[in-house]
Design goal:
This protein is mainly alpha-helical and 92 residues long. It has one domain. It contains four helices and no strands. It is globular, with a radius of gyration of 13 Å. The model has no long low-confidence stretch (mean pLDDT 84).
């Protein structure tokens, strides 16, 4: 799948999490997840065209290994977002 399509999947998942989590009531969660989303997009923008399945699998491993320190309590922490994105990418 082309990098731009993978970015579209990330954006769709991000919007879904926003609707699900009432992020207007969860500033710590939205900041942390936005930081992760931005990192994912930057990582995928490095590819011209279509990354290989092994490259995408490696990105998911790296993303799953990220640890973000939250300030306050997040309703939907970034690890849930990362796992959702990776699961969607892996089945696509």
């Amino acid at each position: 799948m082309a990098a731009e399509n993978l970015i579209g999947l990330i954006d769709t998942t991000y919007e879904y999490f926003g609707a699900l989590g009432n992020w207007h009531q969860d500033p710590a969660g939205i900041d942390a997840v936005r930081e992760i989303r931005d990192r994912m997009v930057r990582d995928l923008e490095m590819f011209e065209g279509e990354p290989s399945k092994s490259e995408v699998a490696e990105l998911c491993r790296e993303w799953r290994a990220l640890r973000i320190e939250l300030t306050g309590e997040a309703t939907y922490p970034p690890d849930m977002f990362i796992e959702s994105v990776c699961q969607v990418i892996e089945i696509s």
